[in-house]
């Protein structure tokens, strides 16, 4: 079926199920090869790329909607989500749906709640939903070459700024690093998010003082230099830091 006709058919079926003026757009960040990635969908209609977002059901909480949308559109579940901004510029979606009649409810002005999420790409079994041709991790360095629809480039940029601000008062890494990691690998993650180099001695001292790490009786083998110690996150203390913030950072 033609993507446009398919969209119209599904639109009519969904009209009574969703709130017509409210959506959620999760920005899912991953970390790979010392770079940040973001999860995007290439739509069957228009072939543009979008965040894995969707509309909110009439009987649904916002957080539950964001989690449901991620699972349905990308196959991702058990993800930590945090609301960071609201996007509601006039006519933010009008051009995307220009091929449709003005009566299409998707074409009307709607407000989107932005969430950011952190997820290890190695743990993801991505799916492609019926509206998409692709569901892929895209490096942030590749974004200038990507044809992003609506205001989703702005949403990604603001999500990254929110993530950088969050580092000052909440821990980062549990959802992005493997179970066992070195302090240099954790530092590289912080540097990648912040976009700048950090003093190794100061970083190691501060991160150890937070009480969110457990030093393991193991080392990273295989390198030409001294084998560095391996660490894992103390799950209980990490969750407390997420809830209460960091007091010693």
From TrEMBL:
Domain of life: Bacteria
Nudix hydrolase domain residues: 19-164
Alphabetized PROSITE patterns for the sequence: NUDIX
SUPFAM superfamilies in alphabetical order: Nudix, Winged helix' DNA-binding domain
Gene3D superfamilies: Nucleoside Triphosphate Pyrophosphohydrolase, Winged helix-like DNA-binding domain superfamily/Winged helix DNA-binding domain
InterPro entries for this protein: NUDIX_hydrolase-like_dom_sf, NUDIX_hydrolase_dom, WH-like_DNA-bd_sf, WH_DNA-bd_sf, WHD_NrtR
Classification via PANTHER family: ADP-RIBOSE PYROPHOSPHATASE, SLR1690 PROTEIN
Protein name (Swiss-Prot/TrEMBL): NUDIX domain-containing protein
